[in-house]
Amino acid sequence: MKLIVGIILYCLFPYVRGKQSTQQKKLESLKSLIFNNAKATVTLNSTDLKQLLSLSTPTLGKANTAYSGRKIGFYVTLKSDMNYGKLQTVKFDNIFVNDENDSTCVFTCPAAGTYMFVVDVLLNKHTQLSLRLNKTSVARLYRDSSYSPHVQVSKTILLKLKQGDHVNVVSEYNNVFINGYLYSGFTGTFLY
């Protein structure tokens, strides 16, 4: 708890030590605080996380000019159970958020930067999916048939993207069955 309070105070109050520090000094102190308490659980709210990310960018808190304050993110799910063939793109057809993206099948990067993607699927048989960047697998989700009938499988990754890059989820096997009804989804968001 002391660690959490320390991080929050440090991020929100630049005058804690009596004078305003440079961004680099703040980042080094924050890194030290985290590394020295590596076995502790650190909880950051969204404001703290944004502050940490702004401190850790190579521009030391300067805005990404390609980003220009645009909102980039999406969260889509499957409306119903679906079957897919080998190398078929999974079409998430239930849109909750879709900022800066025209399709629910393939995310097209509108601005260069670092993005976080999450694939979360409910599977009921031997299955393999992949998250692809420009038709190249960058992460895989696998479900072995020896487990219980339904298994929730999830993968979270960070990717450095260039404008125009494509990211999508693809079935690696024939006859891949994915449960819908909000059990399976695909999320992506611009970080910095």
Strand content: 35-45%
CATH top level class name of the largest domain: Mainly Beta
Largest sheet: 7 strands, antiparallel
Could you say which structural class the secondary elements and strand pairing correspond to?
alpha+beta
Order of helices and strands: HHHEEEEEEEEEEE
CATH topology of the largest domain: Jelly Rolls
Compute the number of structural domains: 2
Compute the separation of the termini in Å. 28 Å
**Whole-number average pLDDT?**
75
C-alpha-based Rg, rounded: 20 Å
Helix content: 10-25%
Unreliable residue runs: 1-5, 12-20, 59-64
Overall 3D form: globular
Tally of helical segments: 3
Please identify, by name, the CATH architecture of the largest domain.
Answer: Sandwich
- The beta-strand count equals 11
Could you describe the 3D structure shown?
A hairpin with a 2-residue loop joins β6 (127-133) and β7 (136-143). 18% of the residues lie in helices and 36% in strands. The model is unreliable at 1-5, 12-20 and 59-64 (pLDDT under 50). It is α+β, with helices and mostly antiparallel strands. The strands form 2 sheets. Strands 1, 2, 3, 5, 8, 10 and 11 form a 7-stranded antiparallel beta sheet that branches. Strands 4-9-6-7 form a 4-stranded antiparallel beta sheet, with no helix packed on it. The protein folds into 2 domains: 2-56, no CATH class; 73-190, Jelly Rolls. Pfam families: C1q. Residues 67-192 form the C1q domain. Its main location: secreted. Keywords: Secreted, Signal.
